[in-house]
Design goal:
CATH class: Alpha Beta
CATH architecture: 2-Layer Sandwich
Shape: globular
Largest sheet: 5 strands, mixed
CATH topology: Transcription Regulator spoIIAA
Number of strands: 5
Structural class: alpha/beta
Strand content: 35-45%
Number of helices: 3
Distance between the termini: 22 Å
Radius of gyration: 12 Å
Strand order of the largest sheet: 1-2-3-4-5
């Protein structure tokens, strides 16, 4: 998985490319948790993300909980219908701040 970072107008965006799975989840955790700690607004762009496994879901939940505790926001954008279906089935659609792909 590739993670491209962009800081703009007080928003820190991570554009994810590839698959968020057991092998790549630690890579996201390594950048996401410090970012949520330091930034008021973090965006995860899923436009080019093709798959999310349970290990990736765990990292997303950790990031969301940490953002809420810090009074910051973590938003997931560009979510494909396939990934949104996963979020809905496991109940994350009501926990994560999600903007669907257009």
């Amino acid at each position: 998985m590739n993670i491209n970072k962009l800081q703009e107008n007080g928003t820190l965006t991570f554009a994810l490319e590839g698959k968020l799975d057991t092998r790549t989840a630690p890579q996201l955790q390594e950048v996401l948790l410090p970012a949520v700690e330091e930034s008021k607004k973090v965006v995860l762009d899923f436009t080019n993300l093709s798959y999310v496994a349970s290990a990736g879901l765990r990292v997303l939940l950790m990031g969301q909980k940490q953002a809420k505790a810090k009074g910051s926001t973590m938003t997931i954008t560009g979510v494909s219908p396939q990934i949104m279906e996963i979020f809905t089935l496991i109940g994350f659609a009501n926990v994560l701040n999600i903007e669907l792909a257009k």
